Structures are given as structure tokens and as C-alpha cells.
Amino acid sequence: MKLLYFAWIREKIGKSEEAYDCPESVSTVKQLMDDLKSRGGGYEEAFADESVVRVAVNHDYARLNDSINPSDEIAFFPPVTGG
């Protein structure tokens, strides 16, 4: 699984992307965020408030209960604002 991080999420985690070996117990966006949060440090800080993190799975917006697969590309980013 390929994980991408954008904006302040990237800054907190300290990287823009990484390969992630998805455990069998992780099958939803929420479970992925919880697993990443359990790493502590910047991950815990970045995913502390799930309401301010948006997610895309294979370039499509996703919800916390959406399913994920080991071959997916998952992007995490803050809410997009217009102006």
C-alpha cells in the first residue's frame, strides 16, 4: 500500500509518502488511521482529530468506514478550502 501525506499532515509526520505493509486486521480507512496513530510521535499528532483529516483512496474521496486493500494508494490531506 502506498500512503501519501499532504500539507500539515506531511509536516507532522515528516515525510510525503511511504510504503505501508498493511496488516490483515486493517481493512478500513478508520483502522488504517488508528494503526498509524499507534506509531506515536508525529503520526499520533497528525491523526489525533480525524474530523480535520480528509482521505482519498485511489484518487476518490473516502469515508472512515470505507474498505481498503493492500494494493491501494491512500492520500491524507486537510480539508480543501476555496476563496
Features:
83 residues, alpha+beta, five-stranded mixed sheet, 3 helices, 5 strands, 23% strand
Description:
- The protein has 83 residues and is α+β, with helices and mostly antiparallel strands.
- The protein is built from 3 helices and 5 strands, in the order E-H-E-H-H-E-E-E.
- It has helices at 7-13, 29-37, 41-46, and strands spanning 2-5, 17-19, 54-57, 60-62, 73-77.
- A 5-stranded mixed beta sheet has the order 2-1-5-3-4.
- Strand 3 and strand 4 form a beta hairpin.
- The longest helix is centred in the middle third of the chain and has 9 residues, at 29-37.
- The radius of gyration is 12 Å and the shape is globular.
- The mean pLDDT is 94.
Number of helices: 3
The strand line-up of the biggest sheet is 2-1-5-3-4
Overall outline: globular
Oligomer: single chain
Distance between the termini: 34 Å
Radius of gyration: 12 Å
Question: Could you give a short account of the major beta sheet?
Answer: 5 strands, mixed
Instruction: Give the structural class.
Output: alpha+beta
Query: How many extended strands?
Result: 5
Order of helices and strands: EHEHHEEE
Name the average pLDDT.
94
Low-confidence parts: none
Q: Please give the share of residues in helix.
A: 25-40%
How much of the sequence lies in strands comes to 15-25%
Spell out the blueprint of helices and strands:
Blueprint: E1 2-5, H1 7-13, E2 17-19, H2 29-37, H3 41-46, E3 54-57, E4 60-62, E5 73-77
Parallel strand pairs: 1-5
Antiparallel strand pairs: 1-2, 3-4, 3-5
